[in-house]
Amino acid sequence: MTEPIAPIESHPPSTTSASQSISAQPATALEGERNLTPEEPVSGPRITIQYCTQCKWMLRAAYFAQELLSTFSTDIGEISLVPRTGGLFRVTIFPSTTTSTSSKEGAGDGTVLWDRKRDGGFPEVKVLKSLVRNVIDPSRDLGHTDRALKKGSTPAAPTALAPAPGVAATAPTPSAQTATSADKACEDCQ
After folding, report:
1. pLDDT digit string (tens) for 53-100?
2. Using CA atoms, how far apart are residues 142 and 88, in angstroms rounded to an integer?
3. Spatial strand order in the sheet of 78-84
4. Strands, DSSP E only, in 64-110?
5. Using CB atoms within 10 A as the burial measure, which of 18, 59, 68, 169 is most buried?
């Protein structure tokens, strides 16, 4: 066997005595960027995605956040994931005029773009992007997302799917409903 190789450090620690203090240099912003302090207002609307941790919807919330950031990049000041319980999945946008990193999402000045209970499920990504675009910049073209929505292939709001004629709706099996106490789903989500 070979002996392990010590990691190569690009900046090895300096040798200083305990009486000497090392001052940390502030991070410098790259060209065209600036550092934000926690008290400084964010330069765009804030979007919160509240999701139910008991239902294990964190990955879904993170996926929606990733898609919004990919599409709108610097037009959005902040996207935050807010863990909740009780089957909640809600996307809220707060205007940029009153947005700061220290503001609370319960301030009442936000607009709910999507609520799972109100709108009947989860949004398709293109629908959520369209809702965010309508608040941020209604004149913005979303390319293939807009073309798909204009074709009418996806309705703006979800509709309940009825079973095909002559096909009975199936109920979940009892084994699918059982869960351990640690993995117990919300009563609202079942």
Report:
1. 999 999 999 999 999 999 998 899 999 999 999 999 999 999 875 444
2. 28
3. 78-84, 46-52, 89-94, 111-115
4. 78-84, 89-94
5. 68
State residue 100's pLDDT score. Answer: 44
Q: How far is CA 134 from CA 137, 154, 182, in A?
A: 6, 17, 40
Splitting the chain (190 residues) into consecutive groups of 10 residues, what average pLDDT does each group show? Answer: 68 55 54 61 87 96 96 92 96 73 55 96 94 89 72 50 48 44 58
Please report the domains of the chain, with CATH numbers, ordered by start residue.
Answer: 46-122 (3.40.30.10)
Integer CA distances (angstroms), 40 to 34, 79, 101, 130, 166, in order: 11, 16, 7, 29, 61
CB neighbour class for 51 (10 Å; exposed up to 12, middle 13-18, buried from 19)? buried
pLDDT, residue 143, reads 80
| This prediction's pTM | 0.58
User: Which positions ≥6 away from 89 have C-beta within 8 Å?
Assistant: 49, 50, 51, 52, 55, 57, 60, 61, 114, 115, 116, 122
Cα atoms in the Cβ-side hemisphere of radius 13 Å centred on 113? 27
β-bridge mates for residue 49, sequence order? 81, 91
